Structures are given as structure tokens and as C-alpha cells.
Amino acid sequence: MKHSNILGSATLHITHKNKQWIVAIDDIKDDINGDWFDQSHWLNQGRLLGANSGRGSAWVIKSEWGKWVLRHYLRGGLYAKLNKDHYLWSGLKNTRAYREFELLQQLQTWQLPAPAPVAAKIRKSGLMYQNDLIMAHIPHRQTLAQAIIAHETSEQDWQMTGQTIARFHEHGVFHADLNAHNILLSDKLVHVIDFDKGQIRKPQPGWCEKNLKRLKRSVDKVTPDEHSEGIEQQWQILMDAYHGH
Prior knowledge:
Its EC number is 2.7.1.166. By secondary structure, the protein is an alpha+beta fold.
């Protein structure tokens, strides 16, 4: 078995061969290979543990270093009907996986509750590319969306969510798709996931408020009609915690 804690490594290691780039934390650079980014590789070894919700296709896998999440980037909206997973190439550092990898590394440096990056793979074909990302799996009780649907959110859940979002905003972290499915609840900590298209910006009330409004729309959307009466009070707990952080 390999050592289980690889999350302290911040060095980024890049290999390039046949129009394929693999980006990895330094601790696994001698072990990683392209097969890691194919779910059938893990399935054949009995290490594919199941699907994970979120943007794109994601699978939980059991590596020799612990649980990881493997995500293949998929397009959304109208583009997905024409081209589900190819993106226009404009350089390695502009690819979705590379940018999210770098952002997640920065969030780890700031000790923000987000997934730790493990590796990324980018494959160029003509003017297009496909990409995948491997991250550490975050143990959690359920997503905020699941808790709302099951009517199982506590006052502490809402408080911790508000405080956590405030921490990200204080560091200028813009989340492109802040919604109730991308917030993971546990007893002592709230994590935020899916930082595809995320950015580091100068903290400003305008975009911070838009982030919160996006989350509120998501909360309203998943809230069952029979529980909608109390959601405003719960949302206010989140907002009070956000502003009082």
C-alpha cells in the first residue's frame, strides 16, 4: 500500500507526450499513468465505488492512497447537444482541468474547505481538447440539497454554510456554480466542491451578492412545497452567519 496522506504536496508536476499532458502533485509523479483517468481501469480492479453528483461525470474510486473523485468534463446547455466533451484549445494553462487544478491548490494553501487536487489529464486533438480531473474525496453526511429535500437541515448546518461561504468570499474566491448540490455537510465542517470555471477576484459586494442569490435560487428549487414556508427563516440564519463571520 502507498502512504495515505498525499495532500500536503503543493508542487505541480507536468508530463507531456503525444499531445497529452498529465498534471499531478509531486508525491505521485512516479506512479501516475493515463489509465487512472479511465473509469474502466478502476472498475476492472474492483475499485470503482460509485457515481458522484455534480457538474460532468464523476466517479468515486478507491486508490492506493485513499478515496478519490474522478471527473470527466462535460459541456452543459445547448453546446452539449452538439459536442458533449470537447473544448476549443487555447493553450494548456487555459484548459478547464488545469485551471481548476491550480485553483484548488490555492484553496488548499489558504486552508479553505475544498477538494484537494491530485491529478489532471488533458488530451489535444486538432483544435479541440478533452480533460479529466482527480481530486481527494471529501467524507460528508449529505449535500445541502439532500438535507433540504429530506427536511434534515439543522440551524448549525445553515450557520456553518453561511460562515464557510464568507470565508471563500473574503479570499476573493468566485464559484461559478454555487448551488445546494455543491455544498457538503458534515457534523463539524461544510465543504464546497465543483470549482470548474471558478476564479480568484478582488472581493466586491456585487459578485458576492450574485453568488448568494444563485445559491438561494438553488435552495428554493430543491425545497419541497410542504417545507417552503420555513425556508426563508433558515436562509436568514445563513445570511446572518455570512455577515457576522
